[in-house]
Amino acid sequence: MKFKSMIAGIAVVYAAPAAMAQDTIKIGLTGALTGPVAGTYAPAVEGLRLYLDGVNAAGGIGGRSVELILQDDGAEPSRAAANSKRFLTQDGVVVMINASLSSTYAPAIAEAKRAGVPLIFSASACPPEVFPPADPNLFCTTGFGPKYDSQAALAFIEATDGTDVQIGFQAMAIPVSRGEIDYAETLAGEMGMTPVAKEITPPPAPDYSPFASNIENAGAEWVWSWAPWVAQVKTFEALRRLGWEGDYVLYSHLEAEGELERIKDAGLYAIGANAMFSEGLPVMEEIASATEAAGSSYEANQMTEGWIAGMVIEAALSAAEDPGDAASVRDALSSVSVDTEGLRGGPLEWTEDNHFRTVQSYRVYRWNTDSGQIETVRDWTSYDVQ
Amino acid sequence: MSKPLPAASGHFRRSYADEFRLIETRFARIWATVFTLCLLAFPFLASPFYVDLATQVFLTSIGALALMLLTGIAGQISLGHAGLIAAGAFTAGILFKEFSLPFWVTVPAAAVTGALLGLIFGLPSLRLRGLYLAVSTFALHFVVVYLGGEYETRRGFSTGILVDPPKIFGWEIYAPRTWYLVLLAAAGIALLVCINLMRARSGRAWRAIHSNETVAEALGIGIARYKLLAFVISSSMTAVAGALFAYYRGFVSIEAFSMYLTIQYVAMIIIGGMGSLLGAILGATFVTLFPYLIEGLMSALPGADRLAGSVFAVNYAAFGIVMILFLVFEPQGLVGIWRRLRDYFQLWPFRYRPVGTKS
Amino acid sequence: MQLVVNILVLASIYALIACGYVLIYRVSRVLNLAHGELMMLGAYLLVATASGLSNSPVAALLLALALSLVVGGMVYLFLMRRMTGEMVLAAVLTTVALGILLRGLILLIWSASPRHPRDMLGWENPVFTLPGDARISLYAGLLIVSTVVVYGALFLFLRFGRWGMRMRAAGQNPLLAAQRGIRLHAVFALAWGLSTFTGATAGMLIALDSGLDSTMVMIGLKAFPAALVGGLDSLAGALIGALIIAAAEVGVIRFIDPLLADVVPFLVLIVMLVVRPWGLFGTREELDRV
Fold first, then answer.
1. Which one is predicted more confidently, B350 or B324?
2. Which residues in chain B touch residue C93, judged by CB atoms under 8 angstroms apart?
């Protein structure tokens, strides 16, 4: 027992409150910076960090610099909860950011709601609470738009092949992915398509062929897949190995650009809200040079999400009456409008009861086997978010 | 069974009642009081982050004590601990969400669920021993996790169930300090329950079963009954810990209860020291604080920025190494180290205990 | 027909992994819960050799296989040897700890991003059409072939090989075997080496077929029910067990609900533990020995 009191003693000594610098604006980010899924989240965090470094280098927000406090949660919900608690009770942040697996949302939401501090989701699927009528404290900057993703994907299939198609679905056995694919299945039925198969794969499957066989046997001509990247791609590759010749639409995660180039299959379509770097817009050059200057280990084309989150935060802090006050930042966030400079299909706008965005646009990409390049199959198509 | 005499010299038990006292000497009493006062004062002195850490330690201590009772004392290996914690958390979460039942209903309900599951988890133990038992509890873990996942998906709680802070007598438990005190009390109660179970017939029966089942049976101990009792008590304690977890963290989500959690709990009782309740608490403290310790060390190292990306991996590897070191070089765990230290000071200038006394 | 091929491929994966559990359990009564990690390590060794020897792919593959054999032996000599004579539980927990350590090291060295060793080696993965219009990729086919080869070789080795005989002797009665001059540590190290070798073979072939990331450990865990259903100390049992588990899994995916794929192996396991805990071909006395 004495051991514990010793630890307690040490803890008390070291727990001297961090000196509160008056001139910094604190933002707390909990994210899967390390660990097995870090590959999906860490690049986004890096993008945000680079953007805010740029803001600080340019003089900060009204002379005050922005301090981004990064805490790793390794995609573990318990760690995310501990981190959020720490931000709110110890660091006194004005904005919390979550860049982790959707399983860490619940604890972060619970803490943010309670403390009245705005919480921005900046790397993974947007939770239902940010859609109208939105929770006043929750915001989402990511390209993932549950339900809208499926609408856009099915609309793309309809535009390409009509509604007289047999369509298969693929999800992974995690609640978010299953929920989306269940919705897509119903929607496809309503649109007049014939849903023929719905395969839910376990997180790691030794062999995806049994699942792929079901899709192939059911005679699917199209497949819509909304799951973590590995599950989407492995199911596709298993289908191709079985000699399936249909078309496969998957959600364009940040790995998509590199992976389309690796797979080089013209029947593989990536649909998403973020523009790919093959376009070479000025803002992309900017991200690339920032990445190079910082010597970052991640590809610039994986940082879009983080960069957009940075743009939003900068805009909100500049517009806030008192950027050091959470309530004031929250009000500013609720009326933010950010020009995404081509990274998205349009500006990102939030209103009082819509914290997703007023208009969500999608683009479809694929690998063009003739030109050996990524090509845009369908340009920005917009959906009003209600 | 005779309890070893306390280490103070000149102390004897003079009456039957003396045998039943929890704390026997004045020295021990003073230390216990000082220690309790320190624990009570801690949240008012430390920063919220450390209070949160300490609260986590209390919470895990409950689970570790329960596992120690089952594995360290009764000798029944279970690899279904995370499943049981999940079951408790989900019971509380579901009752709260579906029927908005209050705290004082959901927590006992979690205990009941735990007890029932303990009965199910324990049934194989009547037939299986050792590894096979471990494997069967391991299989049940997957079943519990599957059911939890189904519930979340079917009801559309895809990112987990949110649980509001509990209210006791109209008083809300939310502030870190309040939680600290509540969970300190809960851990204290759990510890007292365990100590008393150990001092009673049940504790003796469990240790007999652990040492040698055949002999225990020959001594007239109802093997089946006591094995199941161990499972039921341990599981219901674990489930209560799970329910408290749900309230403390404000959410329930199946991803929080992975196989790694079970391994962490098993590591706690190994690192703490098998067969000792103090060991369970020391182990829980160590394992809970370990990742923060590693993180702190890594950020103190030169070139911390470059290392930041590998914190998780280093944590994992270091945890594995520590477990191996304990298993290979210190099978008695932290308690073994603690006892050696204590003996060293108590016996100085001598080196060994007199023959026939137990440390 | 495709159904049969799918079952056979999955069964070979499970069988190749399960025989590692059996080899170690049979000689030393230790359940190696780090087997999934060792198998993944084998696959990552291929990534390492492939990046070093990208112009001679066959050499890279052979080197990786040889390394995995060595790694297995080293694990015994430097770690598990210390646990001989300790409680079996302590030994099993040591393997758990080893697993955690390996997982951390693999993440540290190779990071979590997916790897594609086949692309690194510059190999194709052609697909063959079998009679009955079933299709199988080259590496999935190789999985089946190597299962047959590995099991055949192990059978001959244990039956007729000098060291194989020693392994059987050590498993049956370590004390007597030691007294007859069999070097137990060498035998155990060989068992660990072979077990890692076969696991790594499975890991490499899976990685060559469909890529590699750190979730591969879970596959190792799922093969465990196969070993137990067949009987933890029987190689033939592992083969049959793998077939049963694979058939149950693929059948459930095909005819009932793909969602159950992850639970089915463990449900079969529970049923087996209730009905016949020592497995289909296991020895009954084992139960009391653990």
1. B324
2. 266, 270, 323, 327
Query: Same domain for B286 and B183?
Result: yes
Q: Of C213, C222, C262, which has the smallest distance from its Cβ to A230's Cβ?
A: C213
pLDDT reading at B172 higher than 90: no
Please judge whether B253 and A103 are an interchain contact, meaning their C-beta atoms are less than 8 angstroms apart: yes
User: How far apart are alpha carbons A366 and B230 in whole angstroms?
Assistant: 60
The DSSP string of A83-141 is HHHHIIIII--SEEEEES-GGGHHHHHHHHHHHT--EEE-SSPPPGGGSSSPPTTEEE-
**Does the N-terminal peptide bond of residue A133 adopt cis geometry, omega within 30 degrees of 0?**
yes
C228 closest CB neighbour out of B129, B135, B266: B135
Specify the pLDDT at position B199. Answer: 86
Angle at the Cα of A36 from the Cα atoms of A30 and A42, rounded to 5 degrees: 45
Q: Are residues B256 and B165 in the same domain?
A: yes
Task: Quickly state the pLDDT bin for B1 (edges 50, 70, 90).
Answer: very low
Q: Does a structural domain hold residue B355?
A: no
Q: Would you call A175 an interface residue with chain B, using a CB distance cutoff of 8 Å?
A: yes
State residue B278's pLDDT score. 92
In contact, A109 and B162? CB cutoff 8 Å:
yes
Q: Which of B48, B282, B338 is facing A89, going by the closest CB pair?
A: B48
Decide if A52 contacts A313 (C-beta within 8 A): yes
Chain B residues in contact with A8 (beta carbon < 8 A):
38-39, 42, 46, 54
- CATH architecture classification, A148-272+362-384: 3-Layer(aba) Sandwich (3.40)
Q: What's residue C55's pLDDT?
A: 82
Contact (CB<8Å) A241/C116? no
- Other residues' Cβ atoms within 10 Å of the Cβ of residue C247: 18
Which residues on A lie below 8 Å from C113 (Cβ)?
A: 39
CATH H superfamily, domain A2-144+281-355? Response regulator (3.40.50.2300)
Question: In this complex, is the C-beta atom of B354 within 8 Å of any C-beta atom belonging to chain A?
Answer: no
CATH of the domain at B92: 1.10.3470
Predicted pLDDT of residue B237: 95
Residues B283 and B148 in one domain: yes
If asked whether residues B16 and B128 sit together in one domain, one would say: no
Q: Which residues of B touch A106 (CB under 8 A)?
A: 159-162, 250-253
Give the range among A141-145, B303-307, B322-326 with minimum mean pLDDT. Answer: B303-307
Burial class from Cβ neighbours inside 10 Å (0-12, 13-18, 19+) for residue A384 reads exposed
Token duo for residue C88: 């079996």
Confirm or reject contact between A368 and chain C (CB < 8 A): no
Q: Which of C9, C222, C262 lies closest to A209 in CB terms?
A: C9
Q: What is the pLDDT of residues A323-367, one digit of tens each?
A: 888 888 998 998 888 888 888 888 888 988 899 888 899 999 999
Please list the ranges in chain C whose pLDDT falls under 70.
285-290
Minimal Cα–Cα distance from B136 to chain C, Å? Answer: 6
pTM above threshold 0.90 = no
Is B312 in CB contact (< 8 Å) with chain A? yes
Are B24 and B88 in a shared domain? no
Query: Is a pLDDT exceeding 50 seen at residue B358?
Result: yes
What number is the ipTM of this complex?
0.86
Decide if A2-144+281-355 and A148-272+362-384 have a common fold. Answer: yes
Q: How many domains does chain B have?
A: 2
Same domain membership, residue B56 and residue B38: no
Write down which chains contact chain C via at least 3 CB pairs under 8 A.
A, B
Of B282, B308, B313, the CB nearest to A3: B282
Q: Where are the domains of chain A?
A: 2-144+281-355, 148-272+362-384
Query: How far A359 CA lies from chain C's nearest CA (Å)?
Result: 33
Domain holding B236, by residue range, is 46-298+307-347
Quote the pLDDT of residue C83.
Answer: 83
Average predicted confidence (pLDDT) for chain A: 86
CA atoms within 13 A on the CB side of C130: 15
Q: In this structure, are B192 and B311 located in the same domain?
A: yes
Token pair 């939680």 in the structure block, residue: B179
Are the CB atoms for B66 and B85 separated by under 8 Å? no
B212 in contact with chain C, both atoms CB, cutoff 8 A: no
For B142, left (φ over 0), alpha (ψ -120 to 50), or beta?
alpha
